[in-house]
Automatic annotation (TrEMBL), chains A, B, C:
Superkingdom, natural source: Bacteria
Family per record: Belongs to the SAM hydrolase / SAM-dependent halogenase family.
Residues in S-adenosyl-l-methionine hydroxide adenosyltransferase N-terminal domain copies: 10-154
Organism: Tectimicrobiota bacterium
Name listed for the protein in its UniProt record: SAM-dependent chlorinase/fluorinase
UniProt-listed SUPFAM superfamilies: Bacterial fluorinating enzyme, C-terminal domain, Bacterial fluorinating enzyme, N-terminal domain
InterPro entries cross-referenced by the UniProt entry: SAM_HAT_C, SAM_HAT_N, SAM_OH_AdoTrfase, SAM_OH_AdoTrfase_C_sf, SAM_OH_AdoTrfase_N_sf
């Protein structure tokens, strides 16, 4: 594996910003690689919510410079037998627990392989059993960012854990059922229906107008940007990740509709 | 325009810290200018609250080194015809939507001009219509921080949008009515009455003692620091931005008084 | 005093992240030392809660590189006669109010001395009476990080303020009463009972099994990591700071047990 570290490290976790967990990890890393520069992606992942952590990192990672190390810790199994993992793509390294958090990496077309992180000499000593973010993942990520070869940190593995993300489901010949996979700060409802799927459905359904509903509430047509919606009813658009997103102009759609993550979204023709 | 970039970029937005929006913008910028260093001013601006965003950046911007680029995104009109803007003062560049967020810049005594940001070759391609923070403002700010001349990014404009901030209002001959324009984390109530106005009133009113009230609650006199207040009633002081601020020693004044932003403050003599 | 600054500055405060206080302090510091790099430890210390601020910084500071300046501001007495302080250990400088926030520093085995920070020429001018974070502590910390000798900033003092932290209390011959001193984001309850004390008790009590209870709820035995607990009842472990911590696998122990900071924890043998 050939990886040219850029000196940039992103962090994603469920540690929050009130406790000193994140600052402590950064301190540990700066002792190993004083030149490191950090970018926080999010530390507000709901506690132990691996799917949300995965979704969050997935939508951000490819915007970073080649050579970035992405450290992510959402780790309900800390201390147990779940493996610490390094995953490698053409441009990035990923370091964190092998619990599905990096599922999207394994389907990246430039994915090059995964390693179990076993070389304890790169861990903080003595490494405890309750805060591997500090004792295992942070030091390993810092050593990797400083140029330590991946092969020195562990062995190649071929069975990294993959989580099943909710997939849209075809219902009969004229409906597809998707799901809200994220609610953002503005209350916008992000579904797992991609623009590509939407357009395939549209042509498959003879270019008839596709209707969208959630909790029996009809959604106005697909518009291009938020300002094109209405304050009277929710609309949809293809968002900045290419997903169908339901919003309510000037309001919080999640609150107004009473919708949470996991709610079903219906696309159909009549 | 002559601007010597310091390599420092501040960020102000209503994106929050739970979603990956802010991290994504930083990734985009580091790809363009890997040496950039970021300082977050706030990402907790209430959603789409341009006035709060403006107030927040206004109280912080002048403390940064000359050559700082201030990127700010509170952008309910994203995707519509509102222009992307660059504003220039002697020491700083400001990049964000032309929706009044930078009103205070245009009255900075060192203001040098505003530019519409139109050179699409500096945008992320393809630029979407829903996240100009990532696709338009971040890349433009990063190119500017890397030395791209402002003139290459767009054309001079002479009508940037200005928001009317609430102004104190004279009521008869013995009263001025101000307004709470911000409530801080401690529950302190920041008004739009400046120390300068207060002192002009005082001499105009013959140096009689000025009384202050809010929601019919009388406020103790003006003291110098929080510890000089009392735990029995609210007091006021001139805060670190030179504004009259109402506080309650050891408590959260906003909660105790039931006051929100927008509440009127009365200064009067009897 | 001999201090080789690393160019790394940590920040701990009760300023929150919504207001521009923290960004403003960083701007002030970058004007003095443009090469500074910041690591936020926490800005979510509950308003004016010196004990929590102290606990937070105490658990993180030693993980940073030698030469780090730790700036901490939880400062209910701002503007009053409480002194601004510099504290020195072999590896670190601490800058902030002399109100007990740095109590743990004075018992660090490498503690070298404390200084009153009095040289006003290093303050922001004019320094106000309400935001010493910006006007006094940030500039002083930045000058120190840039190599200004401590002796130039103030005079040696021998009576820095120390706060009494809650200590475990022996009750009769078979019980020790501790206290919850922190509740983390996951709802884990961190007590002031160290692993060392626990093991001393255990041998003092003839290696009989130690029982733990809180609010009359018995706690399962001490396990090694969270996954070894049960979803049926709370368990305990020695956490990453070496303290007895009560958790509830897959849940928020604080919520499930109705426990807040300050609650008593009982260790006893029968």
């Amino acid at each position: 594996m050939d990886f040219k570290a850029s000196g940039i490290m992103t962090l994603t976790s469920d540690f929050g910003l009130a406790d000193p967990f994140v600052g402590t990890m950064k301190g540990v890393m700066l002792r190993i690689n004083p030149a490191l520069r950090f970018v926080d992606i999010s530390h507000q992942i709901p506690p132990q919510d691996i799917l949300e952590g995965s979704f969050c990192l997935q939508s951000a990672y490819a915007y970073f410079p080649s050579g970035t190390v992405h450290l992510a810790v959402v780790d309900p199994g800390v201390g147990s037998l779940r493996r610490p993992l390094i995953a490698v793509t053409r441009d990035y390294l990923f370091v964190g627990p092998d619990n599905g958090l990096f599922s999207f990496v394994f389907s990246d077309p430039t994915f090059q392989g995964a390693y179990g992180l076993t070389a304890e000499k790169y861990f903080l000593r003595p490494a405890g059993a309750t805060f591997h973010g500090r004792d295992v993942f942070a030091p390993a990520a810092a050593w990797l960012s400083a140029g330590t070869p991946i092969e020195e940190m562990g062995q190649r593995i071929h069975d990294p854990m993959t989580l099943k993300f909710p997939e849209p489901r075809v219902v009969g010949t004229s409906e597809v059922q998707g799901e809200i996979i994220h609610v953002d700060r503005f209350g916008n409802l992000i579904s797992n229906i991609s623009q590509e799927l939407y357009e395939r459905l549209r042509s498959g359904w003879g270019n008839r107008p596709i209707r969208i509903s959630i909790l029996a509430q009809g959604i106005g047509r697909i518009v291009r940007y938020y300002g094109e919606g209405s304050e009277e009813e929710p609309f949809a658009l293809f968002n900045s990740s290419g997903l169908v997103e339901i919003f309510w102009k000037g309001s919080n759609a999640a609150q107004k509709l009473g919708v949470k993550r996991g709610e079903k979204v219906h696309l159909y023709v009549v």
